């Protein structure tokens, strides 16, 4: 078999890379190889426990997107890549040649090195359809569930399982969402979780206890938390084995790529969770595993497979996040205040809080809190954090663009906006403008 473009991986990054390749190069033949017979929408996985009715409701309709474009799909596992001969081998024995190759091999759950992880009733949040079916059935049978981890997935899964009437405990080493938010936002989400009945316990896990099935989580401090089921949400690890075997440059953070997502072999591209990302401000590598980032990189790769026609102005990655837990939406982009100060930036912080509708009597009104971090020297925005209703989910995208374009507090303060009583905050109290004004006032006062 011979194809012009072969994409390995059928999740968000692989799907987008294949579609982009076909749209920019319609005469090229494109094949997607995925080892899962059923693919999941990765960001929707936490919601299979409560909001969605079943695991099937989160299935990614891969072929519906690809077949109308003339993109072929092969369900198989790639076992070997040969960059010199431009060939690959699959588990079923197929040999396929390619002109350009895209690695979108994703990531897998990281298992902590503690006793008891092999017990029955201990799960990770995998992206495998059949595994998730089993996990959901086990959750329905359990009464007490302990989730180890304090990141987005841990909180979202915990909140969804809570909706089933289960006793849910989240065990975390330090504050919640610490890599993406400053302490005051971590406190907001912790308070909201406690309000809806989720237990938040701080401590280091010594191990899981039980004979054949898990019966509890033991902390180093001596406390033991009973559990019918334990979910490990302690991060993910990039799938780089194929790249390593092929002799590509790989670091501890993933596959190395240039700004156009080309690997150390220029005919092989890589996108998504399997890739090393470099921070927008510092250039330092950092772990970032987001479907939104994967699709952005996949568009860059797909467009530039055979010639550079989409210039990537900014060569580094902005971490932009959003989540909705226990009725509270949190979103962030760029550096936190804590991270910016640690890197040595002198910063000014602008804050604003107010209703996201006007007047605030509308039923779906939420209080929206904005925190914007600016550099003191020229007032350029370094980061943003928001908390409130669902409008936060789109507002953070405006701020991510502001960070990418290095806008200043003055430019954000004079941002021309559209507002509507049913949709947004008041034009008088629009939180982005108010937070920028707060920062400007501090800059001028020399605060």
Automatic annotation (TrEMBL):
<dbReference type="InterPro" id="IPR016156">
    <property type="entry name" value="FAD/NAD-linked_Rdtase_dimer_sf"/>
</dbReference>
<dbReference type="InterPro" id="IPR004099">
    <property type="entry name" value="Pyr_nucl-diS_OxRdtase_dimer"/>
</dbReference>
<keyword id="KW-0274">FAD</keyword>
<dbReference type="InterPro" id="IPR023753">
    <property type="entry name" value="FAD/NAD-binding_dom"/>
</dbReference>
<feature type="domain" description="FAD/NAD(P)-binding">
    <location>
        <begin position="3"/>
        <end position="294"/>
    </location>
</feature>
<feature type="domain" description="Pyridine nucleotide-disulphide oxidoreductase dimerisation">
    <location>
        <begin position="326"/>
        <end position="424"/>
    </location>
</feature>
<dbReference type="InterPro" id="IPR036188">
    <property type="entry name" value="FAD/NAD-bd_sf"/>
</dbReference>
<dbReference type="InterPro" id="IPR050260">
    <property type="entry name" value="FAD-bd_OxRdtase"/>
</dbReference>
<comment type="similarity">
    <text>Belongs to the class-III pyridine nucleotide-disulfide oxidoreductase family.</text>
</comment>
<dbReference type="GO" id="GO:0016491">
    <property type="term" value="F:oxidoreductase activity"/>
</dbReference>
<keyword id="KW-0285">Flavoprotein</keyword>
<protein>
    <submittedName>
        <fullName>Pyridine nucleotide-disulfide oxidoreductase</fullName>
    </submittedName>
</protein>
<dbReference type="Pfam" id="PF07992">
    <property type="entry name" value="Pyr_redox_2"/>
</dbReference>
<dbReference type="Pfam" id="PF02852">
    <property type="entry name" value="Pyr_redox_dim"/>
</dbReference>
């Amino acid at each position: 078999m011979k194809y012009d473009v072969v994409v390995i991986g059928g999740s968000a990054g692989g799907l987008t890379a294949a579609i982009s390749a076909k749209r920019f190069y319609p005469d090229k033949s494109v094949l997607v190889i995925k080892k899962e017979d059923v693919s999941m929408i990765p960001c929707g996985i936490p919601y299979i426990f409560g909001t969605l009715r079943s695991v099937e409701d989160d299935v990614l309709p891969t072929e519906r997107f690809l077949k109308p474009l003339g993109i072929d799909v092969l369900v198989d596992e790639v076992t070997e890549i040969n960059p010199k001969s431009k060939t690959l081998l699959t588990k079923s024995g197929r040999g396929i040649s390619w002109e350009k190759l895209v690695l979108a091999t994703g990531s897998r759950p990281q298992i902590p090195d503690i006793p008891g992880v092999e017990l029955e009733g201990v799960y990770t949040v995998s992206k495998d359809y059949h595994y998730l079916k089993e996990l959901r059935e086990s959750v329905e049978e359990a009464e007490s569930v302990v989730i180890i981890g304090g990141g987005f997935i841990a909180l979202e899964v915990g909140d969804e399982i809570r909706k089933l009437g289960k006793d849910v405990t989240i065990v975390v080493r330090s504050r919640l969402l610490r890599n993406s938010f400053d302490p005051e936002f971590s406190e907001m989400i912790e308070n909201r979780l406690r309000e809806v009945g989720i237990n938040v316990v701080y401590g280091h896990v010594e191990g899981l206890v039980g004979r054949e099935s898990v019966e509890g989580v033991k902390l180093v401090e001596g406390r033991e938390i009973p559990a019918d089921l334990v979910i490990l949400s302690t991060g993910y690890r990039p799938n780089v084995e194929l790249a390593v075997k092929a002799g590509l440059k790989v670091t501890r953070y993933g596959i190395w790529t240039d700004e156009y997502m080309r690997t150390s072999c220029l005919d092989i591209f890589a996108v998504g969770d399997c890739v090393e990302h470099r921070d927008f401000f510092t250039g330092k590598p950092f772990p970032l595993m987001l479907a939104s980032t994967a699709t952005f990189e996949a568009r860059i790769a797909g467009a530039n497979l055979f010639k550079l026609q989409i210039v990537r102005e900014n060569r580094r990655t902005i971490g932009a996040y959003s989540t909705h837990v226990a009725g509270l939406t949190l979103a962030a982009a760029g550096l936190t205040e804590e991270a910016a100060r640690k890197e040595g930036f002198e910063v000014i912080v602008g804050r604003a809080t107010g209703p996201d509708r006007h007047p605030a009597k509308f039923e779906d009104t939420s209080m929206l809190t904005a925190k914007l971090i600016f550099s003191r020297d020229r007032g350029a925005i370094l980061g943003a954090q928001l908390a409130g209703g669902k409008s936060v989910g789109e507002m953070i995208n405006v701020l991510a663009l502001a960070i990418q374009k290095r806008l200043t507090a003055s430019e954000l303060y004079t941002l021309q906006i559209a507002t509507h009583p049913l949709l947004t905050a008041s034009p008088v109290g629009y939180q982005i403008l108010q937070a920028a004004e707060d920062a400007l006032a501090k800059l001028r006062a020399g605060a």
